[in-house]
Design brief:
This protein has about 45 residues and is mainly β. Helices cover about 10% and strands about 20% of the residues. The protein contains 1 helix and 2 strands. The protein has a two-stranded parallel ribbon with strand order 1-2.
């Protein structure tokens, strides 16, 4: 079983302690959101 962690592109998510996961936590897979995607912003359509 794998866990997908949705994260934005903040610097602390790319830090060494977070991006270099230990062997016993390899089932956690970070999924990074796009850096800039105005077409996905639903509030901008109103």
């Amino acid at each position: 079983m794998s866990v997908h962690l949705a994260a934005d592109n903040a610097g602390y998510f790319h830090a060494g302690k977070v991006s270099d996961r230990p062997e016993d936590h390899q089932q956690i897979k970070p999924e990074f959101l796009p850096a800039y995607a105005p077409d996905l912003n639903l509030t901008g359509r109103f």
